[in-house]
Amino acid sequence: APCQPRATTGGVPSEARQCDYTGLYYCSSCHWNDLAVVPARAIHNWDFEPRKVSRCSMRYLALMVSRPVLKLREINPLLFNYVEELVEIRKLRQDILLMKPYFITCKEAMEARLLLQLQDRQHFVENDEMYSLQDLIDIEAGRLGCSLTEIHTLFAKHIKLDCERCQAKGFVCELCREGDVLFPFDSHTSVCADCSAVFHRDCYYDNSTTCPRCARLSLRKQSLFQDSGTEAEP
Fold this sequence. Notes:
Elements: E1 8-9, E2 12-13, E3 17-18, E4 25-26, E5 34-36, H1 39-45, E6 51-53, H2 55-64, E7 70-71, H3 72-75, H4 79-82, H5 84-104, H6 107-112, E8 130-131, H7 133-141, H8 143-162, H9 164-167, E9 189-191, E10 198-200, H10 201-206, H11 212-232
Antiparallel strand pairs: 1-2, 3-4, 5-6, 7-8, 9-10
């Protein structure tokens, strides 16, 4: 592919080596039988067996391996139905994004530079959708799940146990007003999509009325509107 004039000698083709990444053929000068994980095989078949690739493909894959450019839910959403580890990682990432607002408004967390625990995977504190090929390799090997669980535990400990400022930002379930202080990343909670109030999951789904916080905010807005209308009357 890259050097057609050199790929033949006297009209007789030299050894042709296929690159598993591009699907094209290369001469032995451009294809050294280097081995690399091919992204398409990983994403579509969860296959991480290294395959033979050309020199230019090897350099490109090495350059891109740690870059978060793979949006799995668009490329192959069914992968989450078959790979349990991916579901676990997605939940951990979602929890970390819910923890982030606590840290960026907490002086102690900023001084401890807690978010730098994920400095090698900065995209984990920006979104829960994008993955790098290295992320997938580490998930399949079991490394990422262990390290991310440890970081998740450290973050939750700061918010729920170590820091009084972060503890004060917790929620009490307004539907039952019982139990411990709740946080949006707790596994047994549900969060109102409109006002972000946190409730026990069972209370939230058993409740047939609207969110009490939303109802209270709506009444407050109506009251302010009525007051402003009264003041405007001559």
